[in-house]
What we know:
12 helices
Amino acid sequence: MFILQSAVRNACRNKFKSITGVLICAAITLLLSLYMANLENNCQMLQKLPEAIPVTGTVSNLCGMQETGLQIKEERMDGILNSEYVKNPCTGVRLMAGIGEFEPEDWANHLNMYSSGTNNLLAVKGLTEENVEFMEGIGPDFLKTNEKQCLMQRKIMDFYNLKVGDSVLLTVYYYWYWDYGRLRKDPLSVQEYQIVGMLDSYGDINEAVPSDILFPMETIRDSYRRADIDFYADFCNFTVKDPLQLDALKEEMSGLGFLPVSATANFSVDGNALTIKDDTFIRSAQRARESIQMMKCFLPILFLAVLFAGFLTAYLFTRNRRVEYALTRLAGTGKKKSFGIFFAEYAALALMGNMAGILTAVAAGMTNLRTCAAAMGTFLGCYLMGTVAALAETQRLNVMEVLTKND
């Protein structure tokens, strides 16, 4: 209690020096808060960069001329679907369908509906949940199942007098390439499907003609397996889950057999090339990383500067108060108490200046409380260490020598 009372009296008696000390501490704290807030903002910007600049991947043929109408091997497609580095994978296969069962030679009169098997509504350009009238209890996630269900265009349903919830027998044909890339279609399955949603006009899927019917892709894959036909996806694209792990993703995709696009390659329908559009993200991330690295390199220098500021402030303020220190000692106050009085005085002034700087930064909206708390701890730690070093010099003063010189 004695130390605190003496520290308060000393601070009041030396008003000018006390106010100057508070202002110095406030200015240092304000600058330190701004510096640390800038560093934190750069780190947050780097973390939010994937949302601001999404990185996407698209499978194409080797020459890069075609991204749909491909033959993407099933194991490659599964590798993308199961990758921990991928989100929102979109893939599918083109089909043709007709109402009822009919013989292959009659396909021209019955096979009249463009169809697709897909795993995600996002694969359908221009289609959103608002364009689909789902049956109660059904949502877009049904496309990820292997249920015998489908979505059908409103115009088709009106023509055949169908409604949501009805079941309909569909003959489905699949496409395949033969004889140097020429396309043909053959029977795949004859199954009954429940219509669980009605499609309004929506634009186009990843092909030239919008699909009249959408099936869950896993349902179509099951049909391929039952018919003992090799499955190939028609298109595949995705968003990178964490672009900061691009190297791991590229290594995994390379292991699946994907190659970079080569403009000199011959045209083919084999979907064995992968384009990851990451140029903009990489440039932005590199600039953010360089900025963060530079600011972190300067942090030790900044801490040393604050420590030196504490030492210099305390040293200059105590230099003209040596007589006051000597008289305090002469009055019977020991070294430890004398040190405690002066330290408590400077610590109180530092804390006041620290709080003033933080309140200024927060009031101006330049930083947040968490950053301010870090700045406060850093400042007080470094500043008071410098103060202790300066006051340690005072402890070595000879009391009688100081008083004699003053006389």
